[in-house]
Specification:
Threonyl-tRNA Synthetase, Chain A, domain 2, alpha+beta, four-stranded antiparallel sheet, 4 strands, 235 residues
């Protein structure tokens, strides 16, 4: 009987991919994915430790709470923190979506998020596609991208010079949508004359002396306000 020859370690064509996958799933890879949260907590811990040595633990907590209250109380700093929060959340949700929809290589390597920045309508992710992934894969999963990032829409754009670089725009709000409904003169006239035609006038000046509504539209007044005196008849 012929025996199948198993592939040894030396015959592995891509041995480096194994180490990348192991590093991605190790503590180093987890720390890299949660780097923003770890740096934030580490910075707050360092500030609290320094303030504790200066003014004590209780006053350090008070000062830190007051500083956080000012950051979240001012509009521009609160807007900055909120936008950065959504950027971090979009990056995490994007990684989760790629894993759930199998938008990764056969070795299990996910696309690399090079940069995430806020925009006026949401967030923009610049993604580096690994071998085996293209922009068409993200276009086919645009609906899943929007749902995963809690957004209304996701737009995928391929880079014109480098096809492995993909830009994903997460649309959360529409800046061109009308916030206030602007009425028209016709709608205001309709609201006014609707009550008059029902026999319940709301404005006294829009009714005729006999109690009925005036014709609408009203005919133009052709009478002369200051008629000239008629000449006397010849004797």
């Amino acid at each position: 009987m012929s025996q199948t020859k198993t592939r040894g370690k030396r015959e592995d064509m891509y041995p480096i991919d194994k180490y990348f996958v192991q590093a991605h799933r190790s503590a180093i890879g987890t720390a890299w994915r949660w780097r923003t949260e770890l740096l934030t907590l580490g910075g707050l811990g360092a500030v609290l430790y320094w303030l504790s040595g200066q003014i004590g633990v209780h006053w350090a907590l008070v000062v830190l709470a007051a500083a956080l209250g000012i950051v979240f109380g001012l509009p521009w700093t609160r807007r900055l923190v909120t936008r950065r929060f959504w950027c971090v959340l979009a990056r995490h949700r994007f990684h989760r979506l790629c894993w759930e929809t199998r938008l990764h290589t056969r070795a299990g390597r996910l696309p690399v998020v090079l940069w995430t920045r806020p925009t006026k309508v949401g967030e923009r992710l610049t993604v580096w596609c690994r071998a085996g992934i293209s922009a068409d894969d993200f276009i086919a999963h645009a609906g899943e991208l929007a749902a995963a990032c809690y957004a209304r829409e996701a737009r995928v754009t391929r880079n014109t010079g480098w096809s492995q670089i993909v830009t994903i725009n997460i649309i959360r709000r529409d800046t061109l949508a009308a916030r206030h409904k602007v009425g028209t003169p016709l709608s205001r006239l309709t609201d006014t004359y609707a009550a008059i035609l029902d026999g319940q006038p709301v404005i006294d000046s829009v009714v005729t002396p006999n109690g009925g509504p005036p014709p609408w539209p009203q005919p133009p007044d052709t009478s002369d306000p200051d008629p000239a005196q008629e000449p006397e008849e010849a004797a």
